[in-house]
Amino acid sequence: MLMVGLTGGIGAGKSTVTAVLAEAGAVIVDADRIAREVVEPGTPGLAMLVAEFGEEILGPDGSLDRAALAALAFVDAERTAALNAITHPLIGERTAELFAQAPGDAIVVHDMPLLVEGGMTPGYQLVIVVDTPAEIRLERLVEQRGMPEDDARARMSRQATDDQRRAVADVLIDNSGDRSAVADLTRELVESRLRPFEHNLRTATPVIGDRTVVPFRPEWAGEAERATARLHHVLGGRAERIDHVGPTAVDGLDAPDVIDIQVTVADEPGRDEAVRVLTGAGWVPDRTSDAPLLHWCDPARPLEVTVIAQDDPEHEFALVMSQVIADDPAARAEYADVLGREDREETRQWERARCQEVRSR
Question: Do residues 286 and 144 both lie within one domain?
Answer without folding.
Answer: no
